[in-house]
Design goal:
The chain is an alpha+beta fold. Helices cover 31% and strands 9% of the residues. The protein has one domain. The chain starts with 9 loop residues before the first strand and ends with a helix. The structure holds zinc ion.
Length: 65
Amino acid sequence: MYEDDEDDYQIPCPKCGKEIYEDVDQCPYCREFLSSSDFKRPTPAWIVVIVVLTIISFLLASCCF
Ligand SMILES: [Zn+2]
């Protein structure tokens, strides 16, 4: 049984590859400054669902009213 602390999400540093916390501004290992643009996060599924539902409701509204 693993006991990974999922509250502290860690990512590999884009510069040195060490595991660092996602919300730090600077890598503690290589002193590379981090910006959110360095990490391409996948779009959360709920956002996709909301967008799709919005589009569908627009389509329904435009054809039925
Ligand atoms: Zn680093």
